Amino acid sequence: MSRTNTEHFTAIYDFLQNKRADETTLADVLELAEISARSMQRFYEDMDSAVYRELREIAGYIESLKREIGALKANEIKTSRIPAAGQELSAVCKATEAATNTIMECAEAVMAADSREPAAYKALIEEQMMIIFEACSFQDITGQRISKVVETLQLIDERVSRFAKAIAARENSGHSSEAESAREERKRRLLLNGPQLNGPETSQSEVDAMFP
Amino acid sequence: MAVDLTMPVLVVDDYNTMIRIIRNLLKQIGFQDIDDAADGTAALGKMREKRYGLVISDWNMEPMTGYELLKEVRLDPGLSKTPFIMVTAESKTENVIAAKKAGVNNYIVKPFNAQTLQSKIEAVFGD
Known about the structure:
Structural class of chain B: alpha/beta
Shape of chain A: rod-shaped
Strand content of chain B: 15-25%
Number of strands of chain A: 0
Strand content of chain A: under 5%
Shape of chain B: globular
Largest sheet of chain A: none
Largest sheet of chain B: 5 strands, parallel
Oligomer: heterodimer
Number of strands of chain B: 5
Strand order of the largest sheet of chain B: 2-1-3-4-5
Structural class of chain A: mainly alpha
């Protein structure tokens, strides 16, 4: 408590010391109220300015958070970017599957072809080879689709990184949902590691050595 | 190849393309009786209805993986002796060790070729 406030309370104390209860008038009560109000004024002023500073800092933080959330464009990511990327990947799967089926159909047709008539056999082989060449054109389009998905992932990475930096985000341990936790537990328990990025971690010859 | 080519073979994979590839390779080897299933649960159902001479299974499938199928097969007295080859992109050493411990007869890492498939089948049947 400040020295000024102590002086005010001393004034109240002196006032009460010099007054007897039966002598107290309305003017005395008003004077006492005025002294009391003055004594509390500085306290409230001090408190107000501290609280005001705190509130201004909080308001500034909220304002910057709003700016960063706006820059994140979470709704755009959720409603536009991610669905579009999903559609691109789905189209890639369909195109590769269709091309693979076409190529396998050609291979099966060639395998089943009757080679006893050379001219007809040659014509069939040439026809099937042309279909295989055409089917392989999927690679160009799927390459472009995958580039679009990579671009989306980079954009999300940039926005999320900026947001995390702006709010000084700290990583929580564990998983964000029960479903994620269950997926990770299943992967760990059933050794679902998936294909390795740079080819098989254990080569076929290394595997063979384990099955003598 | 002294392998009995008349024995029924069950191919288990959740990708039709891979089933088709393996089916064609098996036909080239000489197998004719080839069935397929899209996951471990479906495979187990088929194995309990028909006696297969060989199971060729992928690892990563849902709901039942090839690894779980292998363990179920080895626990079932009526199926436990069925030769089982894993054909998978799971190439970590821990996967190979776990499959071997669970009783797999051989292990093929994807991508693979016809020669590898044939040689592993021959190895399983002791040729």
